[in-house]
Amino acid sequence: MSQPKVPVWVNVALIPFINIMLAFLVSGLVILAIGEDPIEAAGYLIYGAFGYDEGIGYTLYYATNFIFTGLAVSVAFKAGLFNIGGEGQAYIGGLGVGLVCLALDKTMPFYVIAPLAIIGAGVFGAAWAYIPAYLQARRGSHIVITTIMFNFIASSLMVYLIVNWLKEDGRMAPNSRTFEESAWLPYLHDFFLPLGIDIGSSPLNFAFVIALVCCVLVWGLIWHTRWGYQLRTLGTSATAASYAGIDTAKVTIWVMLISGGLAGFVGINEIMGVNHSLLLNFTAGYGFAGIAVSLMGRNHPIGIVLAAILFGALYQGGAELAFELPNITPEIVVVIQGLVILFSGALEHMFKDRIEGFFIRRAVA
Amino acid sequence: MFETLILMLDATLRVSTPLILAALAGLYAERSGIVDIGLEGKILGSAFAAAAGAAVYGSAWIGLCFGILASVGLAMIHGFACITHRGDHIVSGVAINTVVAGLTVTLGLDWFSMGGQTPALSGDARFTDITLPFADALASVPVIGQIYSNLLSGHNILVYLAFAMVPVTYWVIYKTRFGLRLRAVGENPQAVDTAGISVAFIRYRALIICGILCGIAGAYLSTAHNAGFLKDMSAGKGYMALAALIFGKWRPVPVLLACLLFGFLDAVAVRLQGVELPGIGEVPVQAIEVLPYVLTVLLLAGFIGKAVGPKAVGRPYVKERE
């Protein structure tokens, strides 16, 4: 007799739905508490995110960052590791992009710079994740603490490099010179316009396509390679993995390299796609938001794309909301993000166990 | 030279105070087996609540009460997630930090309409500096008098409270029944449960203490060290306290020393800004700023000593049922 199972849709749809609704409910109460109408606020938010072409473009542009950091967190999660250092890895990844662009934009064409910059983002992000990974795998220091410390180290390092070395001469603003256009990733609206499709002008750029490609690659890697099997085994049971002859230290390091590289890709979207110069604090919390995205997306690429679009919509819609209702700051979105982490992460057992129990009892009856 | 040193040590005490309070808060939590990454959020939440309370009621003490209430409330959410619902401690901490970062600004804008800040505090709404007895009379005495009247005297009450909390914590952790049980819960919860003591209750109590101490740390930031709340004013102090906790190997006195070291490094960084050192040249401020984090990483990696935390830390305790 097979054990009664919980229907798949409960886990992939119902539970995330309940969690997000709870987060919205509590944020709605906050909005109510500051004397605004939550329904009206939600209306502005949805209109801002999806109501017009530019809005959708912005939503997807934010979503691009969330896909990268969400994938980064979830690859590590799958192997039972908590990579809280996405922020620092994204920051250093941006440094990689920036250095490639600053070095080559005057001499090389786009077709040479783009692949090198992408490699630069990945390699720098991965390198920043390598040290915590090595320390966890070989010296037993806790990866959560080391990655937090590395976020701060990255932040100080970037301030030092940009202010002392990369800053444009004779300017006060702490950012590098603007790249030549040969180092700009094409905007998607520039790409669609010759085809007769007008999608409005937004920062949405080619990095979105790269993000979707990364989703497919991560999906293939985790579920359809031997190596992905090792990774998932490590995540399910480290003891079982080492009994099965898996070199857990090696897998740990590889997982973190991939995770860090994915986080580093944020730099492509931000530095090469939108800002076209290296600047301070361009990561703006995307690394931490990746935790919410990954939890919400149940660590699956499809879920992550959906969750990333949801968060992209919140960021874009939040800006619209703050514009329409001056009493509300865009920070309300950060509250929602935190509540999502709380309900779908920290309090996941609160409802999950009960709902699953309900369906198991029903299956038995 | 001597006066510069006194000034730097004076700054060290001021910077270290919130670190000491938060690190001791983390010590109670982690010794009971709860990882608390949410120190940062609790400090920030309390800083906001304290400044708001002090601004509205015009009293720093009422502000402090609000700060402690907010911080304990957040600690209870952490406990509800980690103890009652066996949630992941790190995820819960990240959630608290994120919610607070957004909520303080959202509520601040609505309540005070100052872009997320609270009004500037003055008079009774702030903790003012206390001059210790005879400080003025002794100020002219070389060395000892200078140390007494310039370094030790002239801080606000919360600074002295923070330092007083170190021996108190030592006594609670090592000399009381509660402390013994607290440590036992962090090392081997099964044993404590077998002895008929509730693991969950002890951990909740540890988190209440943690919340109170973080609350004082936050109130110090907004009503004593500064005059009002600013967006993200905790600025990583909670994480640095966590680093100090690890650097001090989860023991009260070494934790105090770690906090003082980190505070001193901060004072040095401020002092060395734009100063040419003979033979070395200008030391980048950032190089000194990152030292606490680099040192903690090196310690965790076992390059300078070994940091071993409480054994059951971060693991939810599931009571066995027959």
Automatic annotation (TrEMBL), chain A:
Keyword Oxidoreductase: no
Record GO terms (molecular function): transmembrane transporter activity
Major site of localization recorded for this protein: membrane
Pfam hit, one: BPD_transp_2
GO cellular component: plasma membrane
Residue stretches spanning the membrane: 12-35, 55-77, 89-105, 111-131, 143-163, 204-223, 251-272, 278-295, 302-322, 328-347
UniProt topology in membrane: Multi-pass membrane protein
Localization terms from the record: Cell inner membrane
Keyword terms, alphabetized: Cell membrane, Membrane, Transmembrane, Transmembrane helix
Protein name: ABC transporter permease
UniProt source species: Marinomonas transparens
From TrEMBL, chain B:
TM regions (residue ranges): 12-29, 49-77, 89-109, 157-174, 204-222, 253-270
Compartment annotation: Cell inner membrane
InterPro entries the UniProt entry points to: ABC_transp_permease (IPR001851)
A molecular function (GO) term: transmembrane transporter activity
Gene Ontology CC annotations of this record: plasma membrane
Membrane topology, as annotated: Multi-pass membrane protein
Entry-linked CDD domains: TM_PBP1_transp_TpRbsC_like (cd06580)
Cleaved signal peptide residues: none
Recorded superkingdom: Bacteria
Name of the molecule in the record: ABC transporter permease
Protein source organism: Marinomonas transparens
Highest classification ranks of the organism: Bacteria, Pseudomonadati, Pseudomonadota, Gammaproteobacteria, Oceanospirillales
